Amino acid sequence: VQLQASGGGLVQTGGSLRLSCAASGPTFGNYAMAWFRQAPGKEREFVAAVSWSGRTTYYADSVKGRFTISRDNAEKSVYLQMNSLVPEDTAVYYCAARASIIAADQPGDYAYWGQGTLVTVSS
């Protein structure tokens, strides 16, 4: 599966952005999907994940209540709605896929990665 992330940009503190990740390939519904992010000088960290059906979601504590992950299997896309953004959310955001119906929160559990989209939150 190939992934293409988009939707990043510059936003002020308290603002919102919606990231999208479009997938290619015939079996998107067989993949759990996730978003990770990597800030300058830091390791890649888990943000959110969703199971193949979309019924089960997971979030990092730092984004719970502010971010929402969702997917549309018919459109072969996964989304990350980000609200109440703060400067600490500034990072390159990556979508990732794993050939499992169950989501995970470690980068090593995902074999497929998009190219990343930059989110910058100004104070």
Protein described:
The protein is mainly β. It has strands spanning 2-6, 9-12, 17-24, 32-38, 45-50, 57-59, 67-72, 77-82, 91-98, 112-113, 117-122. The radius of gyration is 13 Å and the shape is globular. It starts with a strand and ends with a strand.
Key words describing this protein structure:
single chain, 123 residues, mainly beta, 7-stranded mixed sheet
Tell me, what's the shape? globular
- How many DSSP helices? 0
Percent strand equals: over 45%
Low-confidence stretches: none
Number of strands: 11
What percent of the residues sit in helical stretches (DSSP H or I)? under 10%
| Main sheet record | 7 strands, mixed
Mean model confidence by pLDDT: 95
Assign the structural class, choosing from mainly alpha, mainly beta, alpha/beta, alpha+beta, or little secondary structure: mainly beta
The radius of gyration over CA amounts to: 13 Å
Sketch the topology as an H/E string, one letter per element.
EEEEEEEEEEE
**What is the straight-line distance between the termini?**
37 Å
